[in-house]
Amino acid sequence: MTSLLRVLPDTPENRELTENVHPAAWVNPDPAPCYNLVVIGGGTAGLICAAGAAGLGAKVALIERHLLGGDCLNVGCVPSKGVISASRAVHHARNSAESGVLDGKSLGFDFGTAMERMRRLRADISYHDSARRFRDDLGVDVFIGQGRFSGADTVEVAGTTLRFKKAAVCTGARAAAPPIPGLEEAGYLTNETVFSLTGLPLRLAVIGAGPIGCELAQSFGRFGSAVTLIEQGPHILGREDSDAAEVLHGAFIREGIDLQLGAKILAVEKRGNEKILRMERDGTTLEVVVDEILVGVGRAPNINGLGLEKAGIKFDRSGVLVSDNLQTSNPNIYAAGDICSPFKFTHTADALARILIANALFMGRQKVSALIIPWCTYTDPEIAHVGMYESDAAEKGIELTTLTVPLSDIDRAVLDGETEGFARVHLRKGSDKILGATIVARHAGEMISEFSLAITNGLGISAIGKTIHPYPTQAEVIKRLADVYNRTRLTPFVKRLLNGWLKWQRC
After folding, report:
1. Same domain? 164 vs 41
2. CA-to-CA distance for 218 and 87, rounded, in angstroms?
3. H-assigned helices in 316-366
4. For the chain, which terminus, N or C, has the lower number of CB atoms within 10 Å?
């Protein structure tokens, strides 16, 4: 029987969530003599491994010590997008005077209601990742407890030994905090705790202007917090093109977020109920006084307590070391997801799990390096990217033709009042081969997949140009890029030939 685990706050929605993903009365099954696949970790990668392998006929054991669903369901994608949705709703309502909304600025907002909605929707979604579904519907042996390797082909969990032919390490990663003096003593939030808030912090400092920091800084600012976003680098979203980040930078400034870029936090101090961050910026020392601090500066792999050494699995501070086919230094043990990948996205974990199943159970030779991985930061506007950046191509000595179309040229964006942003494509010079693309738009995450499909299947920008896109949509901007490319093919020489042909036709 499992130990009692509570997800805070203790509400009906969170009790429903917990009953799905860590049932209090759960009884681990009697183990099979041997498993085709033992999966340690019940996040996205682990769940896909277990469900996919069992669906193909494998005898599978799934081990999770905390919450099935992992970060994505419990403290990541699902709750964050619920919060983002609520923040967009209140922002739109308060900024729609041009559309005829009266007194939008005076509209009230209840943070508790928004968070309750998020918890309710998360609980509804949680059945898909539930222990009972995996046991009853999918035929997986679900063990709740700490799994650790006891040998090259055995795992121990809750006093029971499981023997396997193959195993998968899918234990993911956790939020990391920078070594700032006084931060631990003052207390701070991460993505693992921020969704447990029941009251809106009036003043919030966000450390780190990566995707998590930017998404939550904007959301809490729209809810009404006075937000200070602190980043040591020169601009927000440091991995993105500077002009893409600049669009979001402008939106943040207009929304009243205090951006402290190029700032180094020297120390944090707690005075009563307040928290003081002492920073240095441009040679000047300044203080920021807040009620809460949210840290979003990176992830640390969950490698502790797994007994990796007993199984002969090599690892380092970045996680478990794997080959291009996800095999660890133990040939019968593989890994997938955040525990071994630099691309810490749910959709990447899903893709890696599918590779793991093929390679571990069916002697496949699928390679991680062959994947085309898109990503999106769900701010407003969103920033989505796939493939190479211009800097990547320069490092590899690849010459590019780069085409950009602003959203202000797209009728639907104009009609929606969402003209901030652009679509950009990088082509191999002298061809229509797509090497990379970036979209900055309200719905960029919904639009980037057209480029992902094209790159994955070797389709050039000309193929997109031949594809009819519905009008009016914001995704038409992608077809416009193809139109721009086609115009580059109309060289003066070609134009003279065409003019000559048409002149002859008139005779």
Report:
1. yes
2. 8
3. 346-362
4. C
Helices (H), 183-325: 183-186, 211-223, 242-254
For the full predicted model, state whether its pTM sits above 0.90.
Answer: yes
One-letter-per-residue 3-state SS of 423-437? EEEEEECCCCCEEEE
As a whole number of angstroms, the distance between CA 468 and CA 356 comes to 37
Among residues 320, 335, 370, the one where a domain terminates is 370
C-alpha span between 402 and 466 (Å, rounded): 20
- Are both 17 and 68 inside the same structural domain? yes
Tell me what pLDDT residue 497 has: 87
| In the block, residue with structure tokens 């009042």 | 417
Q: Which of 370, 400, 422 is the last residue of a domain?
A: 370
**Which residues fall within 8 angstroms of residue 479, CB to CB, at 6 or more apart?**
464, 465, 467, 469
> Under the phi-then-psi rule, with left for phi > 0, alpha for psi from -120 to 50, and beta for the rest, what region is 168?
beta
Range of 125's domain? 12-78+117-175+300-370
Maximum CA extent, the chain: 93
Counts for the chain of helices (H) and strands (E), in that order: 17, 23
**479 in a domain, yes or no?**
yes
Q: Which uninterrupted H or E stretch holds 266?
A: strand 263-271
Could you read off the pLDDT of 359-371 as tens digits, one per residue? 999 999 999 999 9
249 and 265 share a domain?
A: yes
Please check whether residue 363 is in contact with residue 355, taking contact to mean a CB–CB distance below 8 angstroms: no
